[in-house]
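Sample intake sheet
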Amino acid sequence: MKDPNPSTFTHQKIKRDVTTLGRYYSLRGHDSLKVPSVTTVLSNVMNKGYAFDTWLKNYGHFADWYRNFKANKGTAVHYCVEKLKNGETLSFGEIKDIVFRYCSIIDIAMSGGKSVLLRSICMYIESYMQYYEDNKPLLLECEYQMYSESLGFAGTADEVCEIGSLAQRTILDIKTGSQQDSHMIQGNAYAMLWNELNPDYKVDHIAVLYLKDSFKLKPTYSLKIEQVKPQMWIDILKIYQNKYMTKDGGYKQKAKWNPRVQFNLRKEIADVRLDAVEV
């Protein structure tokens, strides 16, 4: 294998559309086919299992709120970790700014208050710091966007790195929730995308890093590593395509209505849409 050099990796400019079927991607500036994200395919095909069904039963009408809280909290952790991977120093003030940018008042209430939420985020960051100290990964790419019309899907990998004593080139996904069967399948899909885009720098392994916030004496984490085995992902993608793909090779998705953020009855102002501004 060639020595990795991030400047030689393929980088794409990808456009995301939120549709009636989920997130779809295409190449910016190109007349490319819109293809589903890996997570969109998985969420429409795979059952989340008994643990999820039990969770749904326990939270009932509050399930959507709790799901959004966990997702927003995970996004805040990902953003903090990304800044660390870029070589930045995170102060507590910056962590607070990030957390309250992504987490709503409802999220704060569901976590038990601001101090509880901030402590949890800091514990997750400690967990990532322990993983980094133990494994000393060589980061090749971070938040790497991938699109393939020939494979028929797209996605974003949290990390592409070399890890372990053998410096195994690996697709790594970071999770703040519990382990699910779909996580490794997701990694295999990302590995297929990476290997098509970067055939001289193929990955042979996938990994999922489960960060923890409940440790008592020392930061802990769980790291699961496997060799690339994409067949199950290929089978799941075929099920999704059989269900949603049209005869011309496209999909039955339609873009959701994107509201304007400026209004005038005489239409004397620019037509600016919500997805074009920072909320």
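Comment: The chain has a mean pLDDT of 89. The helical segments are 38-45, 50-59, 63-85, 92-102, 105-111, 114-135, 181-197, 231-244.
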